[in-house]
Amino acid sequence: MLSFLKVENLAVVEKVGLDFSEHLNILTGETGAGKSILIDAIMLLINKKTPANIVRNGTQKLTIEALFVHQDEEIILKREISKSKSLTYLNGELVPFSMVKEKAEVLLNIYGQKDHIFLLNTANHQIFLDRFAQHGGLLTALAEKSRSLRGLQARRNELQAKSGQAREKIDYIDFQLHEIESLDLHPGDEQAWQERLKILAAAESILEKSEVLVQDFYQKDQSVYNLLARDLSSAAYLGSLFPEFNHLKDEIDHFFNLLPEISGFLSNLAGKVDYNENELNEISEKLSRLEKLKAKHKLSLEQLLEKYKRMRQEKDELLNLNFSLTDVEKEIACELAEYKILLAQLRESRRKNASELSTLIVKELSFLEMEKARFEVRMEENEPNPENISETGPDKIEFYFSSNPGQTLGRLKDVASGGELSRLMLVLKSISGDESGATFIFDEIDSGIGGKTAEFVGEKLRKISAQNQVISISHLPQIARFADRHFLINKEFKNNQTYSTAQVLENSARVREIARLMAGSAINADVLKAAELLLARSKV
User: Fold this and answer.
1) Using one digit for the tens of pLDDT, what is the confidence trace for 333-367?
2) CA angle at residue 322 from 316 to 325, to 5 degrees?
3) Of 49, 90, 252, 339, which has the highest C-beta tally within 10 A?
4) CA gap 80, 76 in Å, rounded
5) Nearest to 489 by CA among 55, 7, 80, 1
6) What is the assigned CATH class of domain 1-115+443-505?
7) 266-283 burial, b for 16+ CB within 10 Å, e for fewer?
């Protein structure tokens, strides 16, 4: 709610501070005293454009500062306007105007002769009907189904897009797979090929050197083996005489017995390293192709094998796209069927409540000197399709209105005047009962009415203010009498300048102002008594 408003140097207002009640606040005063200027001050927190000569003559800047209390949080919105610039503040911090505007629009609902954003936006007609019908549960279920459907539709679109590119993608993947498969790659192949290539490249040298070793170690008459065979008895003799030599004699024996095995291994090398030019060329080619693949993909052998595995999986997914697309289409059909069931329930309730709401509003308008007015909530039902699936349904709901007999019902935003919109807004807000803790500002709500109609307007304002804060300008005692806080806006002339002031009226001062509203300047004891009785009735 708007707790406190301070205005300085705005037109005729030099300095005013208003401490508002959380219920019904009424501003009264003579014409031109500055009542609407205070509403205009609040509007400057929402409208960036400022009228010419808005800053009070002889001053440098005007200041509007509003303290709101919202959910136990204090919020201060401030705007300073001079001839050269405009500054806005949120809780004392300099911020862009858009931030202050956004906050103010959330905190305030303003309904004046020219401020009917709620009614002129047809999207709000559906919102109002659903609140009136208490469709919260149905709308929640429909919204969840709508989000599920949109998610499935997005998945289907993604699969369809992939399916259209799948064949080309599969061909490209096949080409990459073939490059890797043609090398028959396995972990460790690169190192094994490199080692084999070294052996094949040195085959001639390996064979020559191994043959020399076989001859020297085992096959020649003067081979190491034959020489040791002749000397083993000498070593045994020395070992019998010198026991400390025995462990060396054992080493000689071991080496002697190992020579045939060494010779056999070296002899067999010939079969392993036999020079094969075809194998050499094949391994060289594989290594060359592998290097090119690694450079192309900027990956190691192990990373290439991992990519190969991923590409196989991607190919399988692409090949299975049609199956996935079919599954998603079945899910969409199932979800859409459930969406239609919920929508049918919502439509049935909307039709019933649209008729009840229309009847109720016509009845309420008759109490506002609009006995001939007609009001109708119309619903245009549209078949759900992928383009119009929404959380509130594809149907369009709009208010139609006619204020005079014989006049065709027209779209509310096209045919209703500012005064008619104000009264209609008052009726709607008084019967909705869906909001609590909001701030409603009604400017000139009593324009052109009187008598019983004024009483009815006052009752409506009081009803709304039971759960919400209401701030309203009024010229009628029948409305002002319901105020929880009554402000008098005065106009004074001093030093050739006009000054507007504001004061809270209580007790006798309030009785006198109600009397002024009843009889103008012709106030006497009878009028004062009538004012007292009127105020007493408002407390019942």
Assistant:
1) 999 999 999 999 999 999 999 999 999 999 988 88
2) 115
3) 339
4) 13
5) 7
6) alpha beta
7) beebeeebeeeeeebeeb
